[in-house]
Amino acid sequence: MRELLSLKHILVFFLPLIFVTELHQISHTILHAFLARLADPTVTLAAFSIAFAFCVTLGTINQISVQSGISFIRDRVSFWQMFRFSGAISLLLFLAVQSVALTHMGDILFGTWMGAGPEVVKQARETLAIMACWLFPVMVRHLTYALLMIHRRTILITYGTVLRLVSLGIFVSVFSFWLEGAAVGGAALAACLTVETVYMTIVSRPFFKSLERDLGKCPSYFELWRFSWPLMITQCSERGVMLVINFFLGQLSNPDLALAGFGVVNGLMRTCLSPLRNLIQTAQALVQSRKDLNLMLNFTFKTLLFFSAVVMVLFYSPLRTVIQEKVMGLTPELAHYTTPGLKLTFWMAIFWGYSSLLRGLLSAMRRTGAIAFTAGIRLMVIVLVSSMTLYLPQLNGTVVGTLAEIGSFAAESLFLGFCLWRHVKTSDQLFPHLQA
Questions:
Q1: Rounded CA gap, 201 and 20, in Å?
Q2: Do 407 and 344 meet the contact criterion of CB atoms below 8 Å apart?
Q3: How many Å apart are CA 385 and CA 224, to the nearest integer?
Q4: Within 13 A of 427's CA, how many CA atoms are on the CB side?
Q5: Is CB count within 10 Å lower at the N or C end of the chain?
Q6: Which letter does DSSP use for residue 253 in this model?
Q7: What is the distance between the alpha carbons of residues 387 and 381, in angstroms, rounded to a whole number?
Q8: Which has the closest alpha carbon to 299: 287, 288, 313, 311?
Q9: What sign does the CA torsion over 276, 278, 283, 286 have?
């Protein structure tokens, strides 16, 4: 019999994922700090940034292995079916990335379209070719994540993230003796992700062995695709949102200040609030009944109260000045410019949290089509709000960018909330696949 869900169970599941998310943020900071100390840091950081952005934009599709695994892994046969499906997607992504890294397409993308210099393009292509290798270990890691989430052992994911962070520091030091420039960062990331994957494979093996061999519930590839493609679209659209906002901010009277200010605000905002993304997996993995649904809504409300309080303490008190000037090292002009945007972060916490919750709940009910539709809604809201810069060039870029993101998540929350409400009201069985 399944153990009854409680607020304690949800907290034990969710809390380790907060540390995972924050450790991810720290690892990026450490890597950038190391690369900034190499020869010609401007070229190195520029090359690494554009290579990383491109690889992650495509590689984020691989994240669907977590949500698909949670929904479909029920026995060993379904696990290997999921493995083959994810492997095929990873292979296609690998070929797509390498086609840019190893052909003239890389020169066109990074040089002609993005305007990077010849040395930056050269390093970016080399780094991208190395980064592509992490797609396969990350795919395996995500499947192990799904196994551990199904068994509510997310603390083991936190341990794996700590191991990755430690190994990253070692690998960037070691590879700096053999490689040059941005390639050091690409190789170090690929290596530390591989180490984490090996660890996750070892610790998840007992949970794999505990699965029944064949319960007769193996999903077809069509079922896996029908569930996954909306999530792929959503993942990619989230990465593309920043490019759209930055385009419109570039139309303001002081584009450099607007782009720099919004970059700072968005970075601080995501550092504080990115753990809310974990509500997706938490809701999907734990909610299996109407009682669980009510409990999850209660937990989310309390979680958002906590994160809203954190935002109030950080950005609505004298501590904000300390963060802006001491921690971030902003000039007085930039600190003043970013203040209005930081004060809007409160609303971001609310709508991002509920958006993540609703994605997880609808994924648990295998109604992901609605999630794909919201990708278009979010993009429309982003364009609508950001287009104010075309008519009011004196606007504060941090306010415009943050309002665009808040509006997109608010629209998504309203639409997905309506879809969930309609499904709950009209369906006798919210999770028919669990009773089958």
A1: 17
A2: no
A3: 35
A4: 14
A5: N
A6: S
A7: 10
A8: 287
A9: negative
CB 250 within 8 A of CB 386: no
> Which amino acid is present at 49?
S
Q: Which two tokens stand for residue 187?
A: 């190789």
Q: How far apart are CA 190 and CA 129, in angstroms?
A: 11
CA-nearest of 397, 41, 13, 85 to 242 is: 397
Which runs of E-coded beta strand occur in 191-340?
none
Distance CA(67)–CA(228), nearest Å, equals 8
Q: CB–CB of 63/135 below 8 Å?
A: no
Q: 179: helix, coil or strand?
A: coil
Nearest to 58 by CA among 103, 90, 87, 24: 90
CA distance 210 to 214: 12
How would you write the pLDDT of the chain (436 residues) with one tens digit per residue? 456 788 888 888 998 988 888 888 777 767 767 776 777 777 777 788 778 878 887 888 888 888 888 888 988 999 999 999 999 999 999 999 999 999 988 888 788 776 667 888 888 899 999 999 999 999 999 999 999 999 989 999 999 999 998 999 899 888 888 888 888 889 999 999 999 999 999 999 999 999 988 887 788 899 899 888 888 888 777 776 776 787 788 788 887 778 778 877 887 888 888 889 899 999 988 988 888 899 999 999 999 999 999 999 988 888 888 888 877 677 788 888 889 999 898 899 999 999 999 999 998 888 888 888 888 888 899 999 999 988 888 999 889 999 999 999 999 999 999 999 988 888 777 776 555 4
- 270 class by beta-carbon count within 10 Å (0-12 exposed, 13-18 middle, 19+ buried): middle
**pTM summary value:** 0.83
Q: Do 329 and 335 meet the contact criterion of CB atoms below 8 Å apart? A: no
Tokens 């960037």: give the residue.
172
Q: How many CA atoms lie within 13 A of 380 on its CB side?
A: 8
DSSP at 62: G
- Is residue 57 a contact partner of residue 236, using CB atoms and an 8 Å limit? yes
